[in-house]
TrEMBL record:
Protein known as: NAD(P)-binding protein
InterPro entries cross-referenced by the UniProt entry: Lipid_A_modif_metabolic_enz, NAD(P)-bd_dom_sf
PANTHER family noted in UniProt: BIFUNCTIONAL POLYMYXIN RESISTANCE PROTEIN ARNA, LD23561P
Species of origin: Cylindrobasidium torrendii FP15055 ss-10
Gene3D superfamilies the record matches: NAD(P)-binding Rossmann-like Domain
Amino acid sequence: MAEKMPSVLVFGGLNTYSRALASYLVPKDGAPLVSHIRIVDKFSVHPPTTYLGAEFPEILKKPEIEYKQANLTNQSIIPSLFDPPEGHGPYDYVFDLTGEVRQDRTEMIQITTTCNVARLLGTEAAKRKVKAYVRLSLPYYKTADKGPFDEKQDPKPNGTCGTWWHETQRILANIEDLNLVIVRAGLGYGPYINFGIIPTFITVAAVYGDMQKPMKSLWSPGKQPNHTVHSEDVAAGMFACAQWIAPLGRAAANDKAGETIPFHNDKSKVAEVEGMPAADKTVTAPLFNLVDDSQATLLEIGQISTSFFNTQFEFFNFIENALFKVGSTFNIKDDIVEEINEDHVGHWTQMLLRSNPPRPNTPLSAYMDKYQLEKIVVGMSNDKIKSVVGYQLRKPKYNHDTIRECIDTWKAEGSWPAL
């Protein structure tokens, strides 16, 4: 007798990775891996209020897929979202892709939309005794220049966003009987992914290729790690982690892969934020890094990206750098952000208008915000997820082939200029 396929509940991530997860679990062409999948997020899909890509609307037509628009900060609706549709048993796996991704959001917004939402979902999932609760953590950390770090290392959360995304891990790890796995992903990219540093980097590299000028960075010599991961591996890796913990349960999973989640916050916040463990409390959860095998540096990412568009990757000279940087922390002035963006953003607009036909409504942007222009250091080892979970990467390298795959999908849907 064939084993019953799991039913899946996905929260958040419509603007990041839940579309890739849905496409992996219920392929457009191929057999589904799950019996039912419900995706819940704040966005509308009919009509769309965020970028969906060309494939996801087709996936939504599949009988296994259900989409619900909901405000997950509203505690009263959370239990109903865990109630399966008629004819289906309780949900087996929950994938938590919630959280505010904008770096410029206030601490209160991060607490409300990142920490509190995850706490509500995790608490309800524990009550429902779901077999797996997989929390995706985005790369809002600064690791050391000489990485890669394994999961026992303690990278520093990056800014307000990173602080509260990290605290969310502690809050979830502190929920008793929650079959939690934390997946800490690298810098993501892939078909239909317009979120994050790498898709912007590809777009800007295309602009400098069209201008026949080198693309320049502030951060010479560029040896700091910028470790990447393909969206297909984000999806498949999360599913593999759910399959891994489901037969084990939390206690056994902690024994095999548990890591202490250190405190990186203001101790005064413990009394203010519901569910936040005390600063001196040791909280442990299974934790896996998820990056590809590229182990790339900023220089290598730059060279791979620009060479695809027949241009070069270079660095500003010392004098130029001095104008762009302030103090020992190398924070970039707001006016410098606009100055850096001026040429390539304007040229990207020209490329979209020169396209035949024009592409004025692309979701892709050549604008690099302050966070994207700062020194990004993401260095993580993927050895643990390979050895403990047995995960095998589907897209092990960031290279010309994976860049071409992204651009081909954007071209086919009309998001990339046809020049």
